[in-house]
Every structure is written in structure tokens, then in C-alpha cells.
Design brief:
Elements: H1 6-12, E1 14-20, H2 27-39, E2 46-50, H3 52-62, H4 68-79, H5 93-104, E3 111-112, E4 131-132, H6 134-143, E5 156-163, E6 169-173, H7 181-186, E7 198-200, E8 203-207, H8 216-222, E9 227-234, H9 247-259, H10 264-289, H11 294-313, E10 318-325, H12 341-361
Parallel strand pairs: 1-2, 1-9, 2-5, 9-10
Antiparallel strand pairs: 3-4, 5-6, 5-8, 7-8
Length: 367
Amino acid sequence: MQSLSSREKNELNFETVLVLQGGGSLGAYECGVYKALHKHGVKFDIIAGTSIGAVNASIIVGSRSDEPAIALEEFWLDIAEGITPPGLPDQIRPYFAATNSAIFGNPKVFFPKWFYPSADYFAPYLWQYFYDISPLKNTLEQYVDFENIRNPRRPRLIVTSTDVQNAKPSIFDSKYDRIEADNVLASAGYPFYGISWTLKNGKYLWDGTLLSNTPLRELINASPKLDKKAFVVDLFPKTQTEIPNNMFEVWHRARDIMYADKTEHSVHMSRIVTRYLKLIREMHEILKSGTLDEKSKEKFAKVEQEYHKLASERGAVIDQVVKIQRHEHQHFLFEDADFSIATIKELISMGENDASEALAKNGHAIS
């Protein structure tokens, strides 16, 4: 999918952006969402992602083919596992598949430390991780030509991670940075599942979800001048009518609340800032047209310089948000570790259907 041309952007004066959350195997839902958006001709200037969202984003932007939607689906079908017996009921399959992932890993994404000899093998209390995600690097390089990410005809890519040592965000932006497989891996080291950090540019980096699972704010900071039309994929349901029945369901609900989309505040604040700037602009024009003494002119010149800087660097507003929300039929804490082929295909189909409905609801032509 190509980015908008310069002429189109100048005419429209906004950027269309896609924001992809982290969520393990739930990232297959994002694959379905992107398939629908691509099918209906939605073009993006910027794609931002964290964790598995960064993996999806890197495949979309850096795909070796001109059909990123096809490449993305091939990736998900490639990493899906076929060990889980076919035909298992939906109530059982996630438990079986997640247990299989926890014990045996996923050969194309991560492998468990206990299957490989190491100096501290018999001292697990010294381990810093349970799973190594270096297999994901090899798999990514099969699907992503990282030179393509620097192609100006491709959408701009933003990948977020967390600095282990100072708890600050570490942002990789294809406009300024040379993004490689290690940058994407740095965004996907989720410590609560025992996944290793990545050492990149002298920094120890963990999953970007630790700071923000919906990197819209980071995207706005990286591109604050143009208004935004944002498509946000929300993998974690914000609403759940049923009260949890046990501790696993309690943890599941708490996890959903922690990682669900919380961009409403960012949207609200961007609109408040825009109103302030309009007010300041009106005051600026009044002062500019008035008669000022020399001392007032000097003060006004300084204020005018600061005004233009603020207006040009922080004048963007999130004009529209199209949210594609995943819904779930059952509440399972480790649903994001279910890589069974049946679940992956189901998630892709759900994402595709939900995105098509969201487009129709927001007035997009559906072919």
C-alpha cells in the first residue's frame, strides 16, 4: 500500500495514520483489519506499532512484495502451529494451544531457555528471561526487506519500545532512523511472559506496551504539524458486562483494562490545544493591526516568534478516529499465546469483518 502523494497531502492537509497495538497472537486480528483496509483502498502516510503491532507494521511497510496484505497473512499462517488437534471446541482449544506455547515455544517466534544448554542452566533463579525471540528475527527477515522501509513511497514507520534502565520510551522512526529487525525485536520483549530484552544502540529495550499499548501519542509527537485521521485497532475489549468469576478472570479483566485503547484523552487534548491556538491567533491579529510603541513592538516581536513556532510545531488536531474493536466470546488470560491455526484464521476473519463494518459505519464506500 502506497502512501499519499505530496500533491494529495497538500490538498487535504492531513495525514492518515494506522495505530497497531501489542497483544501476542491477537495480532492476527490486526492482519484481518489491514486486509479489509487495503481491500477498500485506505492509504496510510504513517503506521505506528508496538510489540506484535510493530511486527505487523514492519511487514506492511517493508514487505518484499507490492501486496503487503498478502505478505502479512502469509506471515501469520506461517507462524501458526498445527500441533493443537483440529476440531477441539472453542472452550478448550485456547488452553491447549497456550500450554503448548508455554512449554515448547514457537519455532518461528520464540524458544524456551530450558531446551538449550547455558552456563546458568541449573540455576534458574539467575535467569533474566524464559524465552528467546531471536527466531522471530529470522522469520521477519523472510518477509521484510528493511531497505524498503526507507523507500519514500512507502508509509512512514514508527516503532516504540521501553528503556529498561530509565523507563523512558525509545522511539524508532523510519524518517530519521535506520530501522532493522533488531529495532522491531526491541519492541516485542514482554517481560511478564519472560521474553528477553534486546540490546540496541547501547540500550536495553523491552516491549513498548509497558508505557503505551496504543502509540498514537508517540505518533503525534513524531509528526505534530499535520492534522490526523487515525485508524486505531483495539485488541483488548474496554467493556465487559460479566463480572469475573475467579482469579484468572480477574487478572484477564485487569489486563484488558491496562492495555485497552486510551486515546480519547489524547484526542480531547489535541482539540483543546487547537482551540487555544485559534484564540491566540485572533489575539495576535488584533495586536498586529493595532498601534504599538517601540517597547511594545519589541515584546510583540518576541511573542510573535514564539506563536509561530507553537502554531507550526503543535498545531495538529486528531480530526477523526476510526476504531476497530475486537470482541471476545470467552475470557481467557493467555488468549494472546494461542497460536493454533484455527484461532489464527478465526482472528484474521474477525478483524476483516470488523474493519469492513467500521468503514461502513464511518461513511467509507465499501466495494
